Fold each of these.
Amino acid sequence: MHRGSVDVVQNYSVPNQATESRFSASFIQDIASAGTGGTAGCVWEARPNDCGGLTYNGTAHNHLDPVGLPFLSLCQSSEKKSAGDVTITGPRPPALLVPNEGVGWAPSGLFQAGDVVHVSAAGGDVPSFAAEAVMPPTLSFLTPDLAARAVVYADPLRVTWTPEEGPGNVEVIVSKKFTPDASGTFSVVQCVAPLAAGALILPVQPDPPIADPSRSTTLLVRVANSTHVRAGEWDIDVSATSFEATLPIVAPSTN
């Protein structure tokens, strides 16, 4: 299966950086949404889990680390393809053109809750397509503190927010990677819940983070509303994301 994604993030937050808008496009050949899949230098197994998403486990070679969201691109590889110029427009200018490297940045505030985000691709390796998605509301998250520099490990990990009605879902992703040499293993757990749910509880993790530079554990929380479109043999998700935060997960203090 060939899969692609176009994502517009209204508020993208990482520790020690200003909040910005991010827009991106990625098109990867031979991606498996469930079962066993792989790209050059990367092999994984994906299975449905008990929190509304998928759990991935795999091996990446030649320092190819897991990147992006599940379903789309678990590994950086040579399998990336082009859909030509990908243009994103909304009710306020300017129009955004996704750069060749696949990720662009703009000042925060170009989109608001309820805006219709229009995406069009001129076509290339991937046939031309057009789609739109409605920007969901920006939620008020209660736990953990997504404005902190890191999240302290907890088992199970609970993500809570003030429930709201509206389009889209809350997605919570925990990714682990271990790269002691030129190869490594990774695990990605994705959980999904509607905006009105107010909470997500991630499955029990097999081991806590440790102070080892060859290991890392990351939490990603996003509020996204996605539309699916088919272009030839390609399955493409177009997402309007009102909020996305990425934080390291650290071991509890022993002091």
Amino acid sequence: MSGRVIKVETATGVVAAANAPAVIGKAITGLAQYDWFVLDFTVSNPTGATLDVFVQRKIEADGVDEWRDWIRLPSLASAAGTKRYTATVAPLNAITEVKGVAEASPATPTLAANTNIGGHPGDKIRLVASAAASAATGSTQTMYVTFWDAEV
């Protein structure tokens, strides 16, 4: 796919507590006006138990106002160190069951590890980390979103 990069935004933050899924950094908004995206991740789990990092997209239509899982990175095993991943999004011909959650309460992901639903996310996405008991709190997770417009 050809196009031009318009901007790059970042969501970054620290895993604050084990056994409690939490939003990492700020939500990335304004995606509706762009054609496609590349998401680059730098995630880390230097010690402790398994860490799951995933992206949720915001659904706001017909009385629905919730976040739904969109991308889930491979689970990071204990002492996995720092890993880097890239996810691109394109329409897929698949149906995947996901769980909807309220604004303030991110849930443990329902997507299988290493899953990308694809398609356009709508206008808002957020990064969420879910650390198992004894996972490394204090580890930094970062998502870079590169916004593209198709060339006309």
Amino acid sequence: MHNFMKYIYSAGEYFRYKVIAGLFAAIWNDSLPIILLAFFLMECLDIFSAWICIAYQFHKKMYPQTEIGVYKAMLFIPTARRWKQIQSAKLRIGFCDKTIVYTLLIILSFIADGILVLSHSHAIVLPVTATVLTITETLSILENLSLCNVTAIADIKKKLGKKTQQE
């Protein structure tokens, strides 16, 4: 009995690794968790880019004579938080709202595709929904970075503007 209890206690030491391995196994076998994880990461990047943008704008307001880049704006985030420019509660609510909406849209799309497959049609709702949500999040991230005067983003916007004017 003593050896059995020793085994149980040693198994608990590796609990977090087992959970992580289980999550990876679940993700590996099904595309829905991968899509949900991808949107969760994109939302995190969107919020982080919003923090960078707010810190950049705050630095610009406090020190109008100096110009900083994205890296310096990232380093300025703690100062912007101390001055209550970045309000975590407001961003947290937005993050939770987007997570709930995106998760519901993905699950409903997954169900709709299941119904389409059962009716001998092609499953197209999930890829279309995922594409639209990905484009939306990407544009939001690009918007946030363009407000920080990132030159690469401005160049992309100029090129896209030229393409639309040519057509």
